[in-house]
Amino acid sequence: MTELKMFTFSQIKDEFIGKIGTDKRTAYEQELQLEILGDIIRKVRLERNLTQEELGRLIGVQRAQISKLENNTTNITMETLLRVFKALNAKVNFNVELLNNGVSIAQ
Prior knowledge:
By secondary structure, the chain is mainly α. The chain has a single domain (9-87), classed as lambda repressor-like DNA-binding domains (434 Repressor (Amino-terminal Domain), Orthogonal Bundle). Helix content is 55%, strand content 0%. The protein is built from five helices and no strands. The chain has helices at residues 9-16, 23-47, 52-59, 63-70, 78-87. α3 (52-59) packs across α4 (63-70).
């Protein structure tokens, strides 16, 4: 009988999406983070018993824009994101990680 080989999720992503640091993997990770952000907005909105229309009114956009944010079908500006979380009475923390990429200034 043939023995099955086991793979971790990280190994599968490395193989089929690309290693960490590659353009394809970075794009994948960013898209995943935006998808999670949309899910968080939806979850908090529902916990606050708000409709998409009500949340839209609170931040000055149409219901369709809230739907697009929750479903990750539009780009979101930092300003809009902060307005959404302020309207939802949610605290926002950002974590910035600086990479060891050299920076050069053309002279």
